[in-house]
Amino acid sequence: MVLKNGSKILGTITASRDGQLKIETDFAGTLMIPLDQVQSMRTAEPVVIKLADDEVISGQPLQVEDDKLVVSTPAEPARTYAVDDLLLVNPEPWELGIGHKWTGLVSFAMTMQRGNTDTDELDYKLETVWRGQQDRYTLRLNGELDEADGQKNADNWMAQGKYDYFVSDRTYYGFSALAEHDKFTDLDLRYVLGPYIGRQFYDDPVFTLAGELGLSYVDEDYIVAEDDHYVAAAWEFRASSNYLGGDSRLYVENNGLWDLEETSDYIVNTTFGLSFPLLWSLEAAAEILLEYDAGAVAGVDKLDETYSFRIG
């Protein structure tokens, strides 16, 4: 590979996506090279190429000459494309419309204290995603169980299922179903149902940002207070960055509901976190969770703060 600045790189190209070539080298490990910085290159082994128009070409080397992607097949002469038309190299099966890619995370945070006050705390979090070429399924579950001297002082959980359908590489429509319980804020059950539109604004490891905006029907059943139901504006934003290096990840997650009937009532949940890898695919993370409910029932704090260190 020859770059536009004259540098030469020898290695093995393992993938290309989001305008970046991934190349394994003996001298510098894994490198990510922007496609627009490549002047020329040629692989010794054949690869699978997916172009921006969804054409898939296999069984030929990856070749760039004079800042142009050169594609040739036994049945026709060589064709040239702008390097920006190279969408994927060696795509995964789901990126070719074959099945779904599964990713998941399960983590726990536990505290046990014995002495003047006996304290037991358990936080749990699960997220699993199945991603296909045009759709995505997401399941989430998290909760908290705390006791002090044998008496519960926290008992809450949230479960959510989502379905997304991609109309382009970055834009999608979806539907969410969520259920939530929090005994010590008088909430027996809140369920939220509604559609939304979402977009993946940035998808670079240095900075990723995705956002969703929609309408939801909200039904709230309280243990003591009067039950309620309303239509709300709903949103969710997620951002992350590997700027600190070392495979660590800074992330911020924000979601909320805004009652369109009683506009002074809204719910905003924000998570700030730093995760880093351990051994055997384990991950550790330090998190701050801020949950604000402007319409909290009488006698319940509007802001709930949780600080945790989890492993999963």
List the helices and strands and how they pair.
Blueprint (H helix, E strand, L loop, with lengths): L1 E2 L8 E6 L2 E6 L3 E6 L3 E5 L4 E5 L4 E5 L2 E3 L2 E6 L2 E7 L3 E4 L11 E13 L5 E13 L3 E14 L2 E16 L4 E12 L4 E18 L2 E16 L5 E14 L7 E11 L6 E12 L5 E11 L9 E9 L1
Antiparallel strand pairs: 1-5, 2-3, 3-4, 5-8, 6-7, 6-11, 8-9, 9-10, 12-13, 13-14, 14-15, 15-16, 16-17, 17-18, 18-19, 19-20, 20-21, 21-22, 22-23
Radius of gyration from CA coordinates = 24 Å
**CATH topology category name of the largest domain:** Porin
Strand content: over 45%
**Record field, number of beta strands:** 23
- Please summarize the sheet with the most strands: 12 strands, antiparallel
Neighbour order of strands in the largest sheet: 12-13-14-15-16-17-18-19-20-21-22-23
Mean pLDDT reading:
86
> What is the CATH first-level class name of the largest domain?
Mainly Beta
| Span of the ends, CA to CA | 39 Å
Shape: elongated
Order of helices and strands: EEEEEEEEEEEEEEEEEEEEEEE
State the low-pLDDT regions, or none.
Answer: none
CATH homologous superfamily descriptor of the largest domain: monomeric porin ompg
Number of helices: 0
Give the name of the CATH architecture of the largest domain.
Beta Barrel
| Percent helix | under 10%
Number of domains: 2
Structural class call reads mainly beta
